[in-house]
Backbone:
């Protein structure tokens, strides 16, 4: 479950996001759409607890941080960070670790799970995505799509309540390939929440339960995916959807 | 004489080392553009007697014989002593001064009264390299420490870096006699002679010089010069005797097995210097890099000043500063430790920059991924950031270590007996530059090649674990 109340973030005098309010129940996938540079990634980083913000409060499950805490080194912030897992646009796998190493690194060293158990779980996930054979390879030996799957597994392996994905379509392989979509869907169905930021409506269609349109720094509207696609209320949303249809 | 006749006279070019060269030949303190000293006056008188014009060529004492052979000047006039090994490759004039050796110790010293005491109690004796005294000490297997000039030797004696100094009386009179912290130990001993050194092919020049020296002795010119410098004693009467005075010629012959052992010991000191200095540099580089990148304005400024100072001034000057400058404020380190500390401080500046660039090359997103996986900064640094930075830093660090190995040769300036010093001393003493040079190069290669090889293997091993930072480029 995610609740955002009055979230604002500025760098010097430039407003990046302004007064964002949002509620999302567990088991759902939210797609955030909108043109590049409108603060979608900023919102995601705030949700992950990686970017301090000036106003508002974010709650994930039983953990919550307010603006004042977002810039400190308090225990509450560290606990909040563990609530979500993030997959960056450029993935940022650990280049010095193997595929297996990338996935088990945090379970073993943060959650202190015995290495053998962590490996067994990682193998199960890798098998599901049919990249088990790449287990002992290093990230740079994999294709973009394979790297993306590893990055998703790395985040999922810590079993966060929320999975955050930034522009997943920019990976080289088409992520539309069913198994990744299935994995995300399955993760959501098991009671987790997923937030996907993308400028591509096409990718989110049929996958996201909700869609939110982000205009310049603000959340213009949010609705169920079908409603927003069929009947956008705001002219800016309509404009964007019409534009993305032809793409 | 007018300038026209002076111009017309043939020139006698003579070589001598004016650095720390008093009272032989040195820059006149009241007029540093000109030189003075008894050898300077003797050379002027000698040339004049031969109908020539003397011209002084400043040179380096340790390699003075090689410079003569390379024809940088016609003769050596520099308190130059005839020795058996030199006799094989050059000519000597007849003596123009008879000198003796004087041992000097600290005033507080109660044990050393003679050179024999030094051996008995295992005391170290400093002396000028490549002279009669150094040959005497080496032959006698004393603990010798060679210096480039008398100033450094007596200064180290004062500071306790060496227990005694053996020097020609002329030098001892000038530099040590009036020093309240030092005292002579025993009487002057062992007569030797100063002669003019001449190339083997110049036999007729030798005849002219001998004739002129005879005349200078007989007309009292030499007595006048040396009386002026307070160096005339009864011993000099022997110069006049018809038979040549009995001169004790000391000699050095290269004993190869002994030479190799000496070089090996020197190589071990080089290894010690290199590893010791690198250890300091690798450790000290960390706070410097952190301070420069993450410190407050003051810390940042201090670190930057440190780094720019050590990178912007020659390491040789830094070593001399530490060796001679620190004792002024009461910190006296032995030469080898000064070299380790000095080189370590210097290379720390370079290592800090390697660390800084290595860590800057790791994208901020790597930290963020680690944090989002629940890693605290220390764990993230240890498991994620450091291993990546290490492999970026390793090749330039290896380069620096090899460079440091070679830079240990600068320790020669502060009388540390490392490999380059050993080479100069052994080669100059035996004139076997080529043979010993090859051996020395082999020693250096034997040390640096395995190092380079090992580093290369480690790099390749890490390389297999991928160095690619997967993606660069900004994310919004």
Residues:
């Amino acid at each position: 479950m995610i609740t955002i109340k009055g979230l604002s973030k500025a760098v010097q005098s430039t407003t990046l996001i302004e007064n964002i309010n949002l509620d999302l129940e567990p088991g759902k996938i939210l797609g955030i759409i909108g043109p590049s540079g409108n603060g979608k990634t900023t919102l995601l980083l705030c949700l992950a607890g990686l970017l301090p913000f000036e106003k508002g409060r974010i709650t994930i499950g039983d953990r919550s941080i307010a603006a004042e805490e977002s810039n400190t080194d308090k225990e509450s912030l560290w606990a909040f960070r563990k609530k979500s897992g993030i997959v960056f646009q450029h993935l940022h796998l650990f280049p010095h670790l193997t595929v297996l190493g990338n996935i088990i690194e945090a379970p073993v060293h943060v959650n202190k799970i015995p290495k053998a158990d962590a490996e067994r779980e990682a193998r199960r996930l890798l098998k599901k995505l049919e990249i088990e054979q790449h287990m002992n390879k290093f990230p740079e030996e994999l294709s973009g799509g394979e790297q993306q799957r590893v990055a998703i597994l790395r985040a999922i392996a810590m079993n966060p309540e929320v999975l955050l994905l930034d522009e997943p379509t920019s990976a080289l392989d088409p992520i539309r390939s069913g198994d990744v979509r299935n994995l995300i869907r399955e993760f959501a169905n098991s009671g987790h929440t997923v937030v996907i930021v993308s400028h591509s409506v096409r990718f989110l269609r049929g996958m996201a339960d909700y869609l939110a349109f982000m205009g310049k720094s603000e959340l213009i509207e949010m609705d169920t995916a079908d409603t927003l696609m069929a009947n956008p209320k705001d002219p800016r949303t309509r404009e964007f959807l019409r534009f993305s249809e032809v793409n | 004489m007018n300038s026209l006749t002076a111009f017309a006279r043939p020139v006698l070019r003579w070589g001598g080392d004016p650095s720390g060269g008093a009272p032989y030949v040195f820059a006149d303190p009241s007029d540093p553009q000109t030189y003075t000293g008894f050898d300077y006056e003797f050379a002027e008188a000698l040339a004049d007697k031969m109908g020539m014009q003397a011209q002084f060529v400043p040179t380096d004492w340790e390699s003075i014989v090689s410079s003569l052979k390379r024809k940088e000047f016609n003769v050596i006039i520099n308190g130059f002593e005839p020795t058996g090994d030199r006799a094989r490759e050059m000519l000597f004039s007849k003596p123009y001064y008879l000198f003796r050796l004087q041992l000097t110790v600290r005033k507080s010293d109660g044990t050393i009264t003679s050179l024999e005491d030094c051996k008995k109690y295992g005391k170290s004796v400093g002396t000028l390299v490549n002279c009669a005294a150094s040959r005497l000490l080496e032959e006698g297997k004393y603990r010798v420490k060679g210096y480039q000039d008398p100033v450094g030797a007596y200064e180290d004696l004062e500071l306790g870096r060496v227990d005694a100094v053996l020097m020609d009386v002329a030098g001892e009179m000038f530099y040590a006699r009036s020093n309240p912290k030092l005292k002579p130990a025993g009487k002057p001993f062992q007569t030797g002679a100063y002669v003019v050194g001449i190339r083997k092919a110049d036999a007729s020049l030798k005849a002219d010089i001998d004739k002129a020296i005879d005349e200078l002795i007989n007309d009292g010119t030499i007595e006048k010069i040396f009386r002026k410098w307070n160096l005339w004693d009864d011993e000099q009467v022997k110069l006049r005797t018809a038979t040549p005075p009995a001169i004790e010629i000391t000699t050095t012959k290269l004993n190869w097995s002994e030479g190799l052992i000496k070089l090996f010991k020197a190589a071990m000191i080089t290894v010690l210097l290199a590893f010791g200095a690198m250890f300091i540099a690798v450790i000290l580089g960390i706070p410097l890099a952190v301070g420069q990148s993450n410190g407050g304005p003051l810390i940042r400024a201090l670190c930057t000043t440190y780094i720019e100072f050590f990178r912007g001034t020659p390491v040789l000057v830094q070593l001399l500063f530490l060796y001679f400058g620190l004792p002024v404020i009461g910190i006296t380190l032995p030469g080898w430790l000064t070299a380790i500390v000095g080189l370590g401080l210097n290379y720390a500046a370079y290592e800090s920059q390697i660390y800084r660039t290595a860590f800057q090359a790791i994208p901020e997103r790597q930290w963020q991924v680690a944090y989002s996986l629940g890693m605290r900064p220390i764990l993230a640094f240890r498991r994620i950031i450091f291993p990546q930075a290490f492999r970026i830093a390793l090749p330039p660090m290896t380069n620096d270590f090899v460079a440091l190995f070679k830079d240990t040769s600068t320790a020669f300036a502060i009388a540390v007996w490392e490999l380059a010093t050993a080479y100069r001393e052994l080669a100059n003493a035996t004139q076997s530059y080529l043979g010993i040079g090859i051996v020395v190069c082999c020693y250096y290669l034997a040390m640096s090649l395995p190092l380079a090889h090992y580093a290369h293997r480690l790099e390749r091993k890490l390389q297999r674990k991928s160095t690619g930072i997967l993606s660069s480029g900004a994310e919004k």
